[in-house]
Q: What sequence folds into this?
């Protein structure tokens, strides 16, 4: 069902097409917003030496919120839902489904290509923001360890959200609005709820991986009431990724796409 | 060979130029948005918010409403009622953003994708008429779901309280506030729609614009502790403008509110300028 | 997999029906396609594309069965190494060149490295796109994109070609070349199913046609045979000669001549007959015996347009 050569061919092709597109460049620019903010703050702190800005905490408060509560979700919503929707909208799905490549390979390789594009965009912005905000502490192992945690959590977040939105894009045409409601409606509300309800969101497990705060700094995660353990969070995110991807493949096998001009 | 039957007849009538040339675009667009799959769901979400306030107004005149005393106390005055209706936790603004995405994102990007400009511009229709027609569709939906229920709220309150007077300032506020916010959001969605043929990208970018403006404003505020940075946030500007328009803030003339209104108006004009440049450049 | 001799049925459809909600796409279509060129003719909305999409595994039928090379098509991706499909829609990937696209498709079909490059090059060469292949597809004209689509369907040298309106948007010179290309495929032993709503295109490619209208097959087989089966509509034959009235006088005695119309300005007579074969036999004898010099003899309605019009009852 899944052939290595097919996956390799499709993956490289769609990665090339995706990374060349104008929208990838736009998202790259957006991913550096926190870095720009930190540069401005650095400049202000140089011009006003009396002002003291806690950069490590700022990265958690600003970078953490920006990437983990907004940007990753937007990016994965766009790229995840477009795994199949782009092919249907542009009517290029026919070239894939009339080649001796299994539908499982099509979904898997496109998912991998889009996830990698999202991951590259996010990690580059995250890395640069982290470096600028923790410039003087970069040689300290604990900060490098924190960077690793952030990058790891970001990658897992990209995988989980991308697979969820891939499923939405395979299943329904208007996946963007539904995705926005899920992230900024359900996930936003669920973070305030007690008990196991929080576990019905992806953001809960991502937040469980993120550090509660640097020593002596404010915690980002004031709304987190009952975090899951790191192991549980990693396993759940990977499991959800596999689950959503598998269901997407099953739906792709069962569903027919008429490729008409009507929405 | 003589023509026995022409098969056509000369029309003896008079050609009348249509006064409002963009009206067909507007009417077709209204129907088009209404026919979309989740339109009723989006509209009902919108109206459910208005029903909550209608319910509160009803309860405020009803003895059994005592259990929601605190909520009702807040809306006892007209200015507070409409201020909270329009700005409470930016709920209505959020719905307006969703509606501007739903109604506006595909309007021009769809024409770009299917190369339909020729269809419009080969008629006696200028590019300005085209923009007016498209813009008015989003404006219609935004106003009918904000201003419409607000007018109903006024009428409902008048009937329930038996008092048929409403302050001029509040009445003007009820009209001016949604008009400015609707103009802003409609121009934003139409402008972004004109920049890409990919409607899904446009939808995401509209929402990103809204969310990021609030997030970036908060970030700068958290760092520098200066309220000036809150001018970057769309919801903060809407909030402040609401306070200015309804006069809910104590202590004299509320300059920040006026500045917020000017910022929203200025941004609207900038969006129109970008839209005009974009539409001019589209090849037919 | 069954072995496929030249006479084996390549595509077998039995009572195929497909509807989209309340709209009927095709209804009870039964077709057996053997090697050669099978023309699928019908007006827009007749159901040609629906049938071809089912035949190429894009859609699944609601009723009936379809098999290609003895196997079901839907969700059978391995079968597509033997099938080439040229879609009807003008669809392409932006930001890549024609060359990149063809190489990608060749690799999807399992060709690796240099072989993939060679296969891509060969298919581009056949449709005359080698020179323009390095340009981005978004810069191609409609005709060039159409030729690229045809190339995409032949890159892997398939046994069955399904071409949905392959000549749409193509300039007259390349129309002739593509028609020639399709005939070459037939000579190579391939099976080609080609659809069009333009009658001269189909006539130029093949005599073996299936007429489809409102989702149903109206006729299937050789154009001439179909025509001759339509007894309700007499054949017309137009003869331009030096002695039209003499020819008419000799012909009018026969029962199979229903009507003769004279056109004195062009020395022409148009005869309506209900027995084509008898008419031509007799006409040859009359010409020889009476020394009539014939300038032109044609059957104005002995073509696909007339056949089609008669069948759909215009």
A:
């Amino acid at each position: 069902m899944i052939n290595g050569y097919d996956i390799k061919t499709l993956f490289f092709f769609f990665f090339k097409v995706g990374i060349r597109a104008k929208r990838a460049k736009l998202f790259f620019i957006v991913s550096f917003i926190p870095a720009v903010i930190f540069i401005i703050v650095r400049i202000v702190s140089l011009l006003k030496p009396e002002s003291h800005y806690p950069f490590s905490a700022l990265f958690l408060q600003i970078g953490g919120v920006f990437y983990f509560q907004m940007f990753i979700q937007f990016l994965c919503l766009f790229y995840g839902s477009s795994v199949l929707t782009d092919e249907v909208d542009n009517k290029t799905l026919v070239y894939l489904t009339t080649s001796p490549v299994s539908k499982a390979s099509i979904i898997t390789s496109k998912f991998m290509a889009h996830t990698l594009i999202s991951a590259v965009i996010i990690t580059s912005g995250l890395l640069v923001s982290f470096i600028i905000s923790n410039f003087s502490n970069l040689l300290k192992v604990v900060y490098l360890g924190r960077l690793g945690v952030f990058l790891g959590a970001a990658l897992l977040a990209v995988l989980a959200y991308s697979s969820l939105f891939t499923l939405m894009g395979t299943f329904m045409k208007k996946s963007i609005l539904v995705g926005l409601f899920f992230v900024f409606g359900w996930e936003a509300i669920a973070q305030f709820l007690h008990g196991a309800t929080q576990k019905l969101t992806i953001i809960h497990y991502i937040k469980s991986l993120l550090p509660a705060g640097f020593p002596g700094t404010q915690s980002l995660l004031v709304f987190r009431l009952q975090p899951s353990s790191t192991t549980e969070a990693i396993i759940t995110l990977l499991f959800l990724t596999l689950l959503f991807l598998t269901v997407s493949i099953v739906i792709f096998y069962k569903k027919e796409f008429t490729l008409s001009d009507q929405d | 060979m003589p023509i026995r039957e022409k098969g056509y007849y000369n029309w003896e009538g008079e050609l009348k130029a249509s006064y409002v040339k963009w009206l067909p675009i507007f009417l077709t667009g209204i129907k088009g948005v209404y026919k979309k799959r989740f339109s009723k769901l989006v509209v009902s979400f919108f109206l459910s918010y208005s029903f909550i306030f209608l319910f509160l107004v009803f309860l405020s005149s009803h003895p059994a409403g005592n259990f929601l005393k605190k909520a009702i106390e807040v809306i006892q005055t007209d200015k507070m009622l409409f201020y909270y209706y329009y700005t409470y936790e930016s709920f209505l603004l959020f719905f307006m953003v969703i509606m501007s995405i739903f109604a506006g994102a595909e309007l021009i990007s769809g024409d770009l994708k299917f190369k339909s400009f020729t269809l419009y511009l080969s008629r006696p229709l200028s590019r300005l008429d085209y923009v007016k027609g498209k813009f008015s569709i989003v404006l219609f939906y935004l106003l009918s779901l904000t201003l419409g229920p607000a007018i109903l709220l006024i009428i409902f309150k008048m009937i329930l309280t038996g008092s048929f007077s409403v302050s001029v300032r509040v009445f003007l506020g009820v009209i001016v506030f949604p008009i400015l916010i609707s103009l802003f959001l409609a121009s934003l969605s139409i402008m972004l729609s004109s920049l890409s043929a990919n409607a899904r990208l446009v939808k995401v970018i509209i929402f990103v614009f809204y969310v990021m403006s609030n997030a970036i404003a908060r970030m700068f505020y958290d760092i520098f502790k200066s309220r000036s940075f809150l001018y970057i946030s769309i919801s903060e500007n809407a909030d402040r403008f609401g306070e200015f328009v309804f006069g809910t803030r104590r202590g004299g003339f509320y300059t920040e509110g006026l500045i917020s209104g000017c910022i929203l108006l200025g941004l609207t004009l900038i969006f129109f300028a970008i839209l005009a440049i974009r539409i001019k450049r589209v090849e037919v | 997999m069954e072995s496929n001799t030249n006479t084996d049925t390549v595509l077998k459809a039995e009572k195929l029906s497909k509807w989209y909600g309340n709209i009927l796409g095709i209804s009870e279509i039964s077709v057996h396609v053997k090697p050669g060129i099978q023309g699928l003719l019908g007006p827009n909305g007749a159901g040609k594309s629906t049938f071809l999409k089912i035949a190429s595994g894009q859609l699944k039928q609601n009723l009936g069965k379809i098999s290609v090379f003895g196997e079901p098509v839907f969700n059978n991706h391995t079968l597509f190494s033997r099938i080439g499909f040229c879609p009807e829609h003008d669809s392409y990937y932006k930001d890549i060149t024609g060359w990149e696209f063809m190489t990608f498709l060749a690799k999807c079909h399992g060709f690796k490295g240099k072989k993939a490059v060679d296969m891509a090059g060969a298919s581009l060469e056949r449709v005359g796109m080698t020179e323009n292949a390095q340009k981005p597809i978004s810069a191609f004209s409609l005709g060039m994109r159409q030729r690229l689509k045809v190339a995409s369907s032949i890159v892997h040298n398939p046994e069955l070609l399904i071409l949905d309106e392959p000549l749409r948007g193509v300039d007259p010179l390349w129309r002739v070349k593509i028609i020639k290309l399709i005939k070459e495929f037939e000579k190579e032993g391939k099976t080609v199913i080609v659809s069009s709503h333009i009658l001269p295109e189909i006539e130029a490619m093949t005599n073996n046609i299936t007429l489809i209208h409102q989702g149903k097959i109206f006729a299937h087989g050789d154009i001439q045979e179909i025509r001759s089966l339509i007894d309700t509509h007499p054949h017309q034959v137009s003869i331009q000669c030096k002695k039209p009235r003499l020819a008419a006088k000799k012909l009018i005695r026969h029962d199979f001549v229903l009507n003769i119309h004279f056109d004195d300005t062009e020395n022409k007579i148009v005869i309506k007959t209900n027995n084509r074969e008898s008419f031509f036999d007799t006409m040859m004898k009359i010409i020889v015996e009476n020394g009539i010099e014939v300038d032109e003899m044609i059957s104005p309605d002995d073509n696909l347009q007339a056949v089609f019009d008669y069948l759909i009852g215009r």
Observations:
- The first strand of chain C starts at residue 11 and ends at 20.
- The longest helix of chain C spans residues 172-187.
- Confidence is low (pLDDT under 50) at residues 1-6 of chain C.
- The radius of gyration of chain C is 24 Å.
